[in-house]
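Encode chain A's predicted structure.
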Amino acid sequence: MIPLSHYLIVSALLFSIGTAGVFLRRNLITILLSVEIMLNAVNLTFVAFGRFRGDVDGQIITFFVMTVAAAEAAVGLAIVISLFRHRESLNPDAFRTLKW
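Encoded structure for chain A:
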């Protein structure tokens, strides 16, 4: 059986990679993917703690987080497509004022 600390280390690494992607990348789609990686790291933590305690609460919370992440991806992608049509750029610095 794999100990809880291994799951938490992998989760912390995933969350760090996602955080670095949000702060270091200059593309909106890459930033959205980094946020998804961060959400998956949190899901891994919930499932690991649920397995450690012996109940399914972590999996239930993960189901709701995945539902919110899917909605976030759909709305975020729609906003990115709309912004690209108006500005023809995916650089976040081009959208500081949000004026058309």
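The chain has three helices and no strands.
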